[in-house]
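Researcher: Re-running this chain for the archive, since the previous output was lost when a drive failed. Same request as before.
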Amino acid sequence: MNESQIDLAHTVALGSIGDEDQRAVADILDTDDSVLRAAFTQEVQQTREALALAASTVAVTPPPALRDRLLAAIATDPPPPTAIHRSPTHFHHGNGRTNQPVRD
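Model: Regenerated structure tokens:
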């Protein structure tokens, strides 16, 4: 199966298939290629099972120590650089003049 056929199987599993895609699905299911038909049907089924599993999960409260560990880890990480460093270069404009770069 190619990527577009896999995407199409996911669309079928989500139940959000349009008219044009329905024709493409019919072409896949009516094909003489039994391997393609089986792979497509299996992809739809596996996607539906994954969606059902995701829908049945329940959010749980994380352990209180997790928040403390995350905050401690964040506090020890160095902050990202905030300044952009540029090497000093001269800019030549079409008028032939040389200008110094603007410094922040």
